[in-house]
Amino acid sequence: MGRSTNESEESMVLKVQTDSPSIDEGSCGGSMNGGVVLKKGPWTSAEDAILVDYVKKHGEGNWNAVQKHSGLFRCGKSCRLRWANHLRPNLKKGAFSQEEEKLIIELHAKMGNKWARMAAHLPGRTDNEIKNYWNTRIKRRQRAGLPLYPPELCLQALNESQQSQNSGEVNSGEKRHHDLLQGNSYEIPDVIFDNFKANQGALSFPSALPDISMSSMLTQGPGSSPNYSFMPPMMHRPKRLRESEALFPSYNGSITNGFPEFEQFQGDNCQKIHRPCGMSFPYDPDPSSKNPQHFGGHSLLNGNFSASKPTPGSMKLELPSLQYQETDLGGWGTSTLLPPSLESVDTFIQSPPPTGTVQSDCLSPRNSGLLEALLHEAQNLSSGKNHSFEKSSNSSVVTPSDVVDSSSLNLCDTEWEEYSDPISPLGRSAASVFSECTPISGSSLDETTPSDIIPGSRIKPETIENVSTPDGEKEISNRSNLSRPDALLGTDWFEQSTENGNQSVVNDAIATLLGEDFCNDYKQVPARSSTLPQGQGWSLGSCAWNNMPGVCHMSELP
DNA sequence: AAATAACTCAACCGCGCTGAA
DNA sequence: TTTCAGCGCGGTTGAGTTATT
């Protein structure tokens, strides 16, 4: 049997080699492995047959050996993926059943983007399948303005998390690889913590703009209740990046709306943005945790932009889609009009409704599920231990005027103090600082007249005609442009700081945050100059942003 | 019918973890 | 203790398909 198998295998190998584009087209992108050009791209049936045969004979694992011994011109990774996703037995094909869909939703609420774990709960399904399904679901629901999680699930998760907390189970961050599968699927505490670990960057520094953007909005359909507020971690960042990239060149005004779906998000979400929460490390027993996930670049990996420790070259500078707004900093305090598209982006960055109580920051669980968000919220509401958070939380319940008049200032003081502290982990992203400190300003600068943003003016009520608000809510009228990296330097806080001669303090703090060299590399132009041409009203606070790949330097601006 | 947009899904990439050397 | 290879995971990409204009 072995002989015949080997013979058939050899013949297949021959066929594969013949068919292999990498052989025929060495330049098609295959990687070199020991002088062999490894094939990439879709698998052929012949390759599948070889792989199946090989695995049957040798079992799974040792995937690199597959390439060496089977004659497949595929890297081990590719073989493993092919086997796991398509060739292994008992794989289910076709659409998810309703039960499966329900389970996925539940699992995602608990686990976040732990696709492999989720897949373990769904026999015959692969992580990739689930991931794709979820991404599609997000898009679909987002487009439809539906919450991602059903409200009952939110409540359930909240209850479970509270029970878990009460029983003191939420602990032990070292349970890194607790096998959820070995327990019941509702082992909340561990799940929570696993997610927390995976996402603590987001939890700790929840205000990173990228997360604000999508996560806070996606679930917010018209009339959604706060229970809907918990957002999936997963967003279509590729889209976002592409959009950003596409938008940059045309920031001068031809930006197209890359975020039509944002328009539906408003109200409850926006107030969360004001929630000062990033400093509390609510789940971290040790705020000075060495866990790199807390700080700097790693948060970037989670989609949390961090400029706290600029480490060029090491940072995966995944820019929030909002960054292109930052390129509009020139419009800050100027008469520059933002392209209409931006308003939709900003729609989710809104001030609280006039009477809104602060809810958990919808941004927090970047990469986590509903449960983390719920837990985070619960923690935020009950915790006052962390000094900074304590300060911040004083501003937690805010009215718009609170936000503008006092909270922002106080918060900023707090935040900058934090950043000025060399010992401070500086774990939070600059974006989070911005978001926490910045009174959310209106986004629709395109609809803003210069008089709307004259220095000293409070957060301007903005017209939102172009923002689709299905239920006609008015909450979004008070908005600050959180997405602006220099938003922190804008509005009253900046005004007061500078008027009081504190600009140097501000700059120092920024330098501390961003790194002086980091900033010095860039042009400094008068901030908020109303006379500068569009795109040149850059403030110091913009430096870090400018330094991000894909972000226009001033010198690069048209 | 053609063009375009939106969607789906397979595959790739990069990172981090783990265990063996 | 350090290094390195193997592996798994999550995120991202892009080609193919379907829907819409």
UniProtKB/TrEMBL annotation:
Q: Which GO terms describe its biological process?
A: pollen sperm cell differentiation; regulation of pollen tube growth
Annotated stretches, region: Disordered: 1-29, 383-404, 463-482
Q: Which CDD domains match?
A: SANT
Q: Gene3D superfamilies, alphabetically?
A: Homeodomain-like
The answer to keyword Transcription applying to this record is yes
Q: Which UniProt keywords apply?
A: Activator, DNA-binding, Nucleus, Repeat, Transcription, Transcription regulation
UniProt organism field: Nelumbo nucifera
- Signal peptide (residue range): none
Family annotation (PROSITE patterns): HTH_MYB, MYB_LIKE
Task: Output a single Gene Ontology CC term carried by this record.
Answer: pollen tube
Q: Which PANTHER family match?
A: TRANSCRIPTION FACTOR MYB33-RELATED, TRANSCRIPTION FACTOR MYB65
Q: What is this protein called?
A: Transcription factor GAMYB-like
Query: Which Pfam families would you find in this protein's record?
Result: Myb_DNA-binding (PF00249)
Q: Which InterPro entries match?
A: Homeodomain-like_sf, Myb_dom, SANT/Myb
Query: Locate the Myb-like domain: which residues?
Result: 38-87, 88-138
Q: Where is the composition biased (Low complexity)?
A: 392-404
Q: Does the keyword Transcription apply?
A: yes
Q: Where in the cell is it found?
A: Nucleus
Predominant localisation class? nucleus
Q: Which GO terms describe its molecular function?
A: DNA binding; DNA-binding transcription factor activity
Q: Please report the stretch or stretches of sequence annotated as the HTH myb-type domain.
A: 35-87, 88-142
